[in-house]
Design a protein that fits this description.
By secondary structure, this protein is α/β, with parallel strands linked by helices. The protein contains 15 helices and 23 strands.
Length: 485
């Protein structure tokens, strides 16, 4: 330690110097291109009262003019420090954590919806946004940094939020973003090919998510067991778990049966132990969305909510959920059905296409691209699944970032051609033009799946984020085509 701290009054914690407010502890951690401690003087000018950093950071911040606390790994200490500053352990809210490759955002929103229908003031943090009761805040990371997350929970406590759903990515666990939190109930959706740019193998990716099912992280868990990964998680979990099965013939404590599917709604029954059951519906397509809803309901039961009360709240009119950019229907009563989706993995493509195919009599056209500077090993499979599931593909640019967008499109096309050599494929780089071309290929009874952008409102090219909302643009294109009034 350098400098006295006995008289310091610390009211917050920040990991970015630009986010510092008066009274904050500034935490300087090593980054890709610089060390956070290099900005300690700026943080002090913004009101930081002390710096927490490692030994190298302490040397870099020698002239910052504020007391310096030294720890071997400042990022690893951040969660516990933020929890202490914001008194997270005193928060009376029930905390739900959701992990898995696909479906995390949907489960968090479905938890939020059912809680509100039960009369509970709820909050959430997800890829799409943060919600504090009725207030919405834009998201940047799937799971915010520990400093932001604990401050968010403190803000929720101030407005009497009684339950919070938190989307927990593998990176959040590996990078200490949920440190200092013990969840009341955690849930697992599935595990499939993704993030192999961050993790060396599927095993390593699984190991990162398994960490959530430990006593240091959570008290109870609910696991979807339709896959080998789910079964392994049950076997290796270090906390008590309840199981959920969607596929027939899989042994589990809770079972889901889909009763009806339409382009706007999916009805299902959930059967549990001791003959308990619930029937309801969601304003979303697909068995996978019904599975997400079932997981949310079982997590609520595991947290102490009565299934009969949940059934009374959601049974008659269904779960009143809105999930931005997750197979979100943006079309009207006339013309083709158009869905905007955030799916960007092979499994997400397969699930969405299967659901649309089951509720569509005509052709299915899919518009999609792939992330630049992200896991390149999944691109061929993404193209292959799209070719197998859709009648026509329109391949476009998504977030090329610093990669050559033409090379990304070529990888997707190669995967599609290898799977279905005669599939009709159109390559159109501009997203706006690509969607309008897809719309020109369809009519009444057909469907368009625009996968990738989801809720996002930008396209990232060479380090620049250009404004672009697929949802808004799709609605505009439908109006231009005369399908929306």
């Amino acid at each position: 330690m350098r400098g006295g701290i006995d008289d310091l009054d610390v009211t917050g914690v920040a990991i970015a110097s630009g986010a510092v407010h008066g009274g904050d502890l500034y935490v300087g951690v090593p980054g890709r291109h610089a060390h956070g401690a290099d900005y300690a003087a700026q943080a002090a000018a913004n009101g930081a009262v002390a710096l927490l950093t490692d030994a190298a950071g302490a040397e870099r911040a020698i002239d910052a003019g504020i007391p310096v606390l030294v720890t071997p790994d400042a990022r690893a200490a951040l969660g516990d420090v933020a929890a202490w500053i914001h008194r997270t352990s005193d928060n009376p809210a029930t905390l739900f954590g959701v992990t898995g490759t696909n479906g995390k955002t949907s489960v968090v929103y479905l938890l939020y919806a059912v809680l509100r229908q039960l009369g509970t003031t709820a909050g959430l943090t997800s890829t799409a946004e943060r919600r504090i009761g009725d207030e919405a805040v834009t998201s940047s990371l799937t799971t915010p940094e520990a400093s932001e997350l604990h401050a968010l929970l403190a803000r929720m406590r101030e407005v009497d939020v009684r339950a919070v759903g938190i989307e927990v990515s593998a990176q959040a666990l590996s990078r200490h973003r949920v440190d200092g939190i013990v969840f009341d109930v955690v849930g697992f959706t599935n595990l499939s090919h993704d993030h192999l740019d961050d993790y060396a193998s599927m095993q390593e990716y699984f190991d990162a998510k398994r960490e959530l099912f430990t006593p240091e992280r959570a008290r109870r868990g609910v696991v979807t067991v339709d896959s080998e990964w789910g079964e392994r998680l049950v076997a290796e979990s270090r906390i008590p778990v309840t199981t959920l099965a969607v596929e027939p013939g899989v042994d589990a404590d809770w079972r889901l049966e889909v009763l009806d599917e339409t382009p706007t709604r999916t009805s299902f029954r959930l059967d549990g132990p001791d003959g308990r059951s619930l029937e309801t519906s969601i304003p979303l397509i697909g068995r996978y969305n019904a599975a997400n809803a079932a997981l949310a309901i079982v997590m609520l039961v595991e947290a102490g909510n009565d299934l009969e009360l949940i059934a009374a709240a959601v049974g008659a009119h269904g779960i009143d959920a809105y999930i931005p950019g997750r197979t979100e229907r943006v079309s009207g009563e006339r013309g083709p059905v158009v869905y905007i989706d955030y799916g960007h993995t092979p499994d997400a493509f397969a699930q969405a296409l299967e659901a649309i195919r089951r509720t569509t009599d005509g052709r299915v056209v899919m518009v999609f691209g792939a992330d630049g500077d992200r896991d390149t090993t999944k691109r061929a499979e993404m193209g292959a699944i799209a070719a197998r599931g859709a009648d026509v593909l329109v391949i476009t640019d998504f977030h090329p970032r610093w990669e050559d967008p033409a090379a990304i499109r070529a990888a997707l096309i190669a995967g599609a051609r290898a799977a279905v050599p005669d599939r009709e494929i159109h390559e159109i780089a501009d997203q706006r033009a690509a969607f309008r071309h897809a719309l020109a290929l369809v009519g009444e009874g057909d469907a368009v799946l625009y996968a990738g952008p989801g809720h996002e409102d930008y396209q990232e090219v060479a380090g620049v984020k250009h404004p672009y909302s697929a949802r808004d643009d799709a609605r505009l294109a439908l109006q231009e085509a005369g399908w929306l009034g």
